[in-house]
Known about the structure:
Blueprint: H1 3-12, H2 18-32, H3 35-46, E1 64-69, E2 74-78, H4 86-94, H5 102-110, E3 117-121, H6 124-131, E4 141-150, H7 151-175, H8 188-201, H9 229-238, H10 243-255, H11 267-280, H12 286-300
Antiparallel strand pairs: 1-2, 1-4, 3-4
Amino acid sequence: MTLLRDIQESAIDSNTDILALLRKCSVLAAKLQNTEFKQWVVNELDGYKGDAFLPDYRIGNYNHFGVVTNGYWRQSGPIPTNIKNAQIRKVLASYARVKESAAIINNFVKNDRAGATLRNEWPAELILLYNKENVFNDGFYVERAWMEFPVSFMVGIIEAIRNRVLRFALEIEKENPDIGENKIDPDPAKQEKVTQVFNNIVLGNVGNIASGGASVIQSANINISPGDVHGLKAFLSGRKIDSDEIEKLLSAIESDKDSQGRPSFGDKVKSWLGSWTAKAASTANSEIITEVTRAIMKYLGI
Length: 302
């Protein structure tokens, strides 16, 4: 049995431990010598650190809860988050992300108790900022707060890993049934194809793989937060924009920052977009060009 077939069968079999599946993927990533796939496996096994790009299946929008008090009375329950302060809204959005390792998530699912949830606690500085907004009346303020993820969301993460690994293994097998068995083919075009398939399927940047050239319309799922460099890079790479062009865009974004360091849709970015659009016009359809524009604007927070 080839490594690809072994991975496919492990992904299909719900009794196969998710960590065993990911370790097989680690072997495949080493044989493929594909940096993006290897880093994803490391992130899933060890947890997502710092500003590592988070795939869409780990992002969920659930309720925030808190303990509210006026110094005499104390009660707990959902707390409002639709407040005017954009800075607080941005920070709260960052709590809608599960960065824990697959091992922690899997253990949480296996030890499911009725009503169990995984919590992302608010830090003291966020609670202080929130309380300055005077959300509550009669002197009430938040003493403690958190975001809750139900077990069903954790199960969804595990199943998303299985499903995407399966689709990835099936797709690259179509390109080369023996891939992962022999010494990797150094052909840059084939390496780029593996990266494209990985970005499209595993990271979840597009809903459908184009299997007939760039003229095939794809439905995008653009999950890019303001300032999310990894997310923007992954999305653009999935749209066949090469690394040199991506670096030129990031340089343009840096140059267009205002005096306070805030990004803007300035002249440099507009110039890059116009130049790229002219180059891509012969190979990319209008939907792809529109989606690249939307991705940039999401990154800029527009």
